[in-house]
Design a protein that fits this description.
The structure holds 2 protein chains of 2 kinds. Chain A is globular. In chain A, a hairpin with a 6-residue loop joins strand 1 (183-184) and strand 2. Chain A has a two-stranded antiparallel ribbon with strand order 1-2. Chain A is mainly α. Chain A contains 15 helices and 2 strands. Chain B is of the alpha/beta class. Chain B has helices spanning 47-54, 77-82, 100-105, 118-131, 147-160, 177-192, 204-210, 233-241, 297-304, 327-332, 342-346, 353-358, 374-387, 404-416, 434-449, 461-467, 490-497; strands spanning 9-18, 21-31, 36-40, 62-67, 70-72, 85-88, 111-112, 115-116, 165-169, 196-200, 213-218, 221-227, 259-268, 277-282, 286-290, 310-317, 320-322, 335-338, 422-426, 453-457, 470-475, 478-484. The chains are: A mainly alpha, B alpha/beta. Chains A and B meet through helix 10 and helix 11 of A and helix 2 and strand 8 of B.
Amino acid sequence: MGLQVPAQVRRGRKLSSFLADNAIYLVLLGLLAGIIAISPDFVSVINFRNILAQASTRVIIALGVAGVLITGGTDLSAGRMVGLSAVVSASLLQAQDYAYRMYPNLPKLPVVLPVLLCVAIGALFGLLNGVAVAVFRVPPFIATLGAMVMIYGVTSIYFDRPPYGAQPIGGLDPDFMEYAQGYFFSGPFALPYLVVYAAVVTLLVWVLWNKTVLGKNMYAIGGNPEAAVVSGVNVTKTLLAVYAIAGALYGFAGTLEAARVGSATNNTGFMYELDAIAAAVVGGVSTSGGVGTVPGVVTGVLIFQVINYGLNFIGVNAYIQYIVKGLIIIAAVAIDMRKYVRRK
Amino acid sequence: MAATSTYLLEMIGISKEFPGVRALDNVTLRVRPGTVHALMGENGAGKSTLMKCLFGIYQPDAGEIYLEGRKVRFASARQALDNGVSMVHQELNLVRQRSVMENIWLGRFPRKGPFVDHRRMYEETRRIFQDLEIDIDPRALVGHLSVSQQQMVEIARAVSWGARVIVMDEPTSSLTEREVEHLFRIIRVLREKGCAIIYISHKMNEILTIADEITIMRDGRWIATRPADELTPDEIIRLMVGRDLTHRFPPKENQPGEVILRVENLTAAQQPSIQDVSFELRRGEILGVAGLVGSKRTDLLETLFGLRRRASGRIWLHGREVENRSPAEAMANGFALVTEDRRATGIFPMLSVEFNTLVANLRRYARPLGLLDEKKGAEETEEMLQSLRVKAASRRVPIATLSGGNQQKVILGRWLLTQPEILLLDEPTRGIDVGAKYEIYQLIIDLARQGKAILMVSSEMPELLGVTDRILVMSNGRVAGILDTREATQEEILRLAAMYL
């Protein structure tokens, strides 16, 4: 949104504020530079492709959460919705020759049907979050906390049934696996489908946030709810839509997650919401609402993925990675806050 | 406009009752097209309730509203806007994180297919700004604008709705004289176009400058509607308070004594801010600080109080140098600061009057184990409520339920309990009605009489001339001069205020 900065402010910019404004991008570059300095053979098409592919579902989830955060809300139910969607899609798309099918008599379905169903289920639960928040005025933290617990119950009831009980739902239809694990082209420049899905979702969300009335209203509600009401913005409708869209994104991500991993349980997606919130916040989304960009969120996700993958690559102890991640969450936001805190 | 109706807006016989309170009792307001109609009355007189009935935020129990002769009853603010009735709010209702043009078109963005048409939004905003002689980049972030510019944006938004009736609630409460002139130019442009402006304000001289007609309310009732040129300030006040207020200011009974505070070459670290400010303050003296908005009067108080870092300069209290590096240190040295924006930095709205009274001073109520002495706190709160004549149902009610004047008294009381020697007051009567203002003035003079030294920032000329002993005029962060109030004139102050521009 550089174009909205007034000229006099732009002129007054110094190096320090340039650094603050672009902190997250610099953090990402710094991380990459550090890893490459330690281990130059990190630079390879395969590594970067892996990072992008692994980041893909997370980007989709994070964009959903970020939209909610921008309205001044939050969504703790994201991970459990991913789990529900993963379990449902996996159960409907098991290979015909697999012995332990949840629905032994189910004919082979085209992949798109269960995927659309899961997106719809996600949107429905998202909408319920929206109803709790916008209609019943339950604080978003509480509303989605309730939803998180409830959806886990729903998923577990669906998942833990006779004849096979709480077994991971595996033996997935090869077409379904292909849907998440496949590539365009082959050889060194193969492009994973996952990356394409993420790119398309990113583009759609960018258009939604920046070019549509819904997007503008979303920022307005997060920035100053009173002003939005006075201006005749339909706050209820906007919130319902934002939460429902977030749910739809989790639903979609859940199908990808099931197909990527090759199985699903009622614990699939556990704690994903915290990763997503962390990535969004590191990417410059304000938890008090009204501020956030799509490139920021994507960068936030990539930062975490580079830490995961890169630090593994150079052989850093997995527990130390947690410490690094935690520090980055706090440091990124601390740097970001410098933009907002008026120095006296 | 329809030839049959001489009024653009008529609200006839409006009554509204809340449990236990008759907020509006048969109030009538008639506004002609192409006029500025001032709506006056003390806080609690029912002005805002009446406006809320107009905008459908409240539904009146009785009465009828006609817009251009057509009977209307709006169900929401949006419906009012769609019908050409719009409001510029006292507390600015803008989304600070978004651009000017987005704020103006929020709620009805121009579209191209499913997308927002940014180019048209920009062009339309430019056109409206040109009409109103507003010089703001439509793409600027609202958060980067000054308060007065934000106000212009609010007005432009009202105009962009094609409003025929525009309600302005205390539009000048944070504007300088020059900005007020600009606002008045805009109002005159709107009046030329046949709009009706309902202008709510406490500021007498403004009303007499801009208003064509004045309606006065008291205690939820209509008192009078008269052409502005038939009324004098004294007459207006008499109608508003229902009794003669021969003096707008209490008698000056304080007697400045010896110098207790000396400030030399004070310069703030974070510029632009104050530069090279020097002055002396005497025991029992009220030193006014005048200046235009942006002259850094608030910065002066904040630097003295340790809220702003100091680059250079020295502060002596009783001949002893003090540092005041933080508010805590300043408080320990006997300074107290009553901030300008009561809502943002003064009150804790949902918490009790008692909490709000004691919060700056809790350590005094701590007993050996660190638990608070509630009895002592309650007693001192009651004492404060009584001595400052605060009107509150009890000390336990949320402070948000009190009127602005009473909230301000509680804030003053809070700081008095810290037993300060130097009181820094930033716009102490902002947004307070005439009757309550008098009481605040009385309180300030009483405090000075008890030997407190008071530094009082104000944007209201009559107030500075009526209450202070001397007036320090700031211009662009520097001291332009210090005048003896008895010899000061408004013209002289304005001349000094413009010195370093």
